[in-house]
Amino acid sequence: MTRPNILLITSDQQRYDAVGAHGSPFLTTPHLDSLAHEGVTFQRTYCPNAVCTPSRLSLMTGTFLSRHGGYNIGCTAIDKTRFLSVMLRAAGYRTHHIGKAHWHPWNDSSPEKAPVDEHGTPWRDFVGFDTAELTTGHVTWGVTGHYARWLERRGIPRRELNQITPLFAQDPNETGTWGMPSANHSSAWIAERTTDFLERHDHRQPFFLNLGFQDPHHPHAVPFDFEARVDQDQLPGTISSETDTDVPEPVQLLRSGHINSSRYRGPFEIAGNSGTHDWQAYFSDPARERATRAHYYSLVNLIDQQLGIILNALKALEYERDTIVVFTSDHGDMLGDHDIGQKGPLAYESVLRVPLLLRYPGHVELRALEHPVSLVDVYPTLLGYAGVPCPRVDGIDLRSYLHGGPAPSRPGVRVEYKEEPDRLRYKAWITTHYKLVVYPGESFGELYDLNRDPHEHSNRFHDPDFSAIKAQLLTQLLEDLERSEPASERPSRV
Question: How many domains would you assign to the chain?
C-alpha cells in the first residue's frame, strides 16, 4: 500500500462556527466547505488547552500538557523526540513546516526567532522537520522571520505598510484596516511557499507538510484591499451572560478586566487575556461588538482564499488522491459570548470547540461524526495511516470511526488548563451530554447539561439534583487521567 502524503493545516484561534459549512452562511468559505463536503467533519472536536502553545504541543505529541509539560505560552515540551515530524521523518517522509509553530517560548533566544538569511533560506533540522520557514506573532507584530524576508525580496516597504488604521480607540482586539495588501498577507506567503514546495518535491517520497496560519487571531485587522468581507448586519447575536448562574470567580474577574490583579495570576499576565479589559463594557457597545466580530470572520474568508490556492496546487500537481488533508485550529475565541473576549482560563464551548476536517479521497467517505474527539487524537490517527507504530500517547486512533466503525469507547474528552503550577488551573471532562470542569484546590466548578443548555447558562456544579451525574463524570475523568499515567513493563511477579 502506498503511504499517503499528509498536509496538516492549523489556523489560530478559529472557533467551530468559523466555517460556512458549520451553519454560518454569513461566511464565504467555499474551500473549507469543500473539505467538509468531500470528507469527514468532526462536529464535536475539542482542543486540549485554551491557549496556543500547550494545544499545539498536544497536536504534535498526542499527549496532554500534564505529560508533555509545556503547560502555557512561554513554555515548551520537556521531550520533543516523538514529535509527529520526528516520527514521520524517521519513517522516510520528507518533512517541511511553513508559518506559525509556537512550540517554544518567544523570548530572544527562542529557536523560532533564529536569524534568517537575506535569501530566506529555510532552516534545516527544526524539531523533526527537514526544513522549516517560520514567522512569529500576528498582523503588525507578525511580520517576522521567513515571512519578513519574503516581503523584502518582493520589494515591499513593510515599515510603511505595516500599520493598522483602527476603528476604535483603546481596542484590545485592534479592529481595523491593515495597510498590507492581500497579495502580501502572511496567508498569501504560506500559499506561495506551499505551492513552491509541492512543485519541487520528488513524487517518489511521501511528504508531511505542516502549515500554520496566523489568523484569525487578533489583531482583527483586515488588509485594506480585501473585498470578501463579512457583512456585520448578517451576524447572529452573541451568547449573553445575563442568565448565567453560579459563575466561577475567575470567569467573573476575566469578564470585568480584573483577573490580572487577582490571586489567580502568576508572575506573568493571564495567558490569552493580558491587560485590564472590561469585556462586558466592550461587547455592550453594539458598534464595537459587531465590527470586531465581522473583522474576525473576514480573516477566515481570507484564509479560505489562500487555502483554495493550496488545494488547487495539490490537484494540479497530481497529489490530491494520495494526500490526507487535515484542517483544524489550536483553540477558539470567546468573541463576545458570555460578554468575554479572546481566550484564557475558560471552558466554554466558544473557546474549546474547534473545526476538524479530514479529506482522504478514495479512503474516507463523506460523514459528519458527532462523538466528542480531541486534537490529541490526530497524532495516532495520522501515524496509523502512515503505517508508523505509535508510541503510548493520550490520543486514540480514529481510523475505525472514520471508516464507518462504531464511536470510540472513550466516553468523553479531556481538556486541561494550567496558568501556573500553583495558580489557576482546571481539568475538564466533556461527553456527548455534559461538561464537568474541576478547579484543583477551589470550591467552585462548572457542570453543564449540553443537551438542554447548549449555551452553558446554568451551572449545575452545586446543584444537588446533579450530584450523581457529577460523581459519574468525575469517575470518568479520573479513569482517563489514570490511563495517561506512565507504566513500565512487568515481565515477572517479583
Answer: 1
